[in-house]
Design a protein that fits this description.
The protein has 14 helices and 14 strands. With 374 residues, the chain is of the alpha/beta class. The longest helix is centred in the first third of the chain and has 24 residues.
């Protein structure tokens, strides 16, 4: 089994004695890749070199080269909730990929490894620990993922988004930094109530069948109520055309879209957001100071979306409606109750803003520089 580099060859050794080389590990989904890119950009601005480890099939294959960073490809799969064949394949891939990364750490004089977790991070982290290269992890969920739980004892620093996550790591090694979020979310002003009550429903880039179905079932209820509502629904590509045609006959104001490119603008117009509770989604809600109805994806590893939602509920920033309970009637009732309580909605938005963490990418770069110097 051979490893090969990505097509982008932008990696250059550090240009000065003060510059360092850093490896960024984490791939598969946008939640693993996008925050890593934010930290890598910050490191690059400071004169350091950064490159990524990932797989050919993950989202990093598109996003990393586009940002001008090199992507070194490895072959690795997951170990949780996979069949025997995948488990066996991963166990065979693990030593080969780890050895490949170990050689990269040596040849490029890597000063520290920054890990976003996930199965892609396994070989880089193992290689770093064997070579005694410091590892800094960013754990954006209330409950750490499989990889970060397994290496918790050995990390130099753990950057977390929820105070309760600290208990999974040794005392004194955690810092509450939050997850890097686009600056536009932090500049969204509080929504002034007036006119129609705008509800933004989003299931992520691929949509959510549960949210799509519940929204469709809720339309007649909103139509029959006295509530003046505008619905903006991002469905994901698969269900968009069918839902768009059905919405056109609902008599409601709003629009159905397959994808929303400018999510900060959509947040600006929304009085309330209905969404899943992945790490990126809740970080954006906090940055924007938006009240939300969170419906966690029920099959997320270690129920981390449920734990994220529960943390927001404890903070007073959200209402929780679990996937099995998310029906059109439940969605309508929850939205209507919140719309009827403007003061409560305002408190929820303020509570969300209160748990936001601006400057997460800058602080992560600070920490990486600190451990590299040490």
């Amino acid at each position: 089994m051979s490893e090969r580099s990505g097509l982008n060859t932008s990696y250059e050794p550090p240009a000065t004695n003060h510059a360092r080389a850093f490896l960024v590990a984490g791939g598969g989904t946008g939640g693993h890749v996008i925050p890593g890119l934010a930290v890598a950009r910050e490191l690059r601005q400071r004169g350091h070199a950064a490159f990524f480890i990932g797989t050919e099939r993950g989202l990093e294959g598109k996003l990393v080269p586009r940002e001008g960073f090199e992507l070194e490809l490895i072959q690795i799969g997951g170990l949780k909730r996979v069949g025997l064949r995948q488990t066996a394949a991963t166990l065979l891939q693990l030593p080969v990929s780890t050895l490949h990364v170990s050689r990269l750490l040596a040849s490029r004089h890597v000063a520290a490894v920054f890990s976003m977790g996930g199965y892609v991070a396994g070989p880089p982290v193992i290689a770093a620990l064997v070579r005694q290269v410091p590892v800094v992890v960013m754990e954006p969920n209330a409950v750490p993922g499989f990889t970060n739980r397994r290496i918790a004892m050995y990390v130099r620093r753990a950057l977390i988004s929820f105070p309760e996550t600290a208990r999974y790591f040794p005392d004194g090694r955690t810092e509450l930094t939050g997850l890097p979020v686009r600056e536009e979310f932090f500049s969204i002003p509080p929504k002034t109530r007036g006119g129609k009550f705008t509800v933004l429903i989003t299931g992520g880039s691929q949509g959510s069948r549960t949210l799509n179905q519940a929204a469709r079932e809720s339309w007649p209820l909103f139509r029959g109520a006295a509530l003046a509502v505008r619905i903006v629904h991002q469905t994901g590509p698969p269900d968009c055309e069918e839902l768009r045609a059905a919405f056109a006959g609902s008599g409601l104001d709003g629009e159905v879209l397959p994808f929303i490119a400018d999510m900060p603008a959509a947040f600006t117009q929304a009085d309330l957001v209905v969404c899943r509770s992945g790490a990126g989604a809740v970080a954006e809600l906090a940055a924007a100071g938006k009240a939300s109805i969170l419906s966690p994806f029920p099959f997320a590893a270690d129920q981390h979306q449920l734990r994220n939602a529960e943390a927001f509920v404890r903070a007073g920033a959200a209402r929780l409606v679990e996937d099995r309970e998310m029906t059109g009637e439940k969605l309508f009732e929850t939205v209507a109750a919140l719309a009827a309580d403007p003061a409560g909605l305002e408190r929820m938005g303020a509570a969300a803003r209160g748990i936001a963490h601006p400057g997460a990418a800058r602080r992560a770069a600070d920490v990486l520089e600190e451990v590299a110097r040490a």
